[in-house]
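TL;DR need structure tokens for one chain.
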Amino acid sequence: MKDLAPIQNILDKEIFNSQHLSVSFPKTVLRGPFEYGGLGILSLHSENLAEKLVYFIHHIRSDDSARHKLCCSLGHLQLEIGIGENILLTNYNDLEFLAMEYFISNL
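>> reply
TL;DR here they are.
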């Protein structure tokens, strides 16, 4: 996400200082999982995506107006793309060029 990049750069400097790392320390190792030798520090982009997913799962399981809006958006996206099966069961990467910008298509 381009809009998070300036904030992430400032945050990275603080992370490097707090971890006593050089500024030339590879960000791949900084962000990499523990299992592969990384430090496991998430980027703002990763945290943002995780929050969107938690929001989606929480509301799709509940019975409120947000669920209704999400289901309507999913249905509209499915109609727009022109497929007869559940949009969540298809590979979105194959069909993303057919979809306009919706909240649900950004998940």
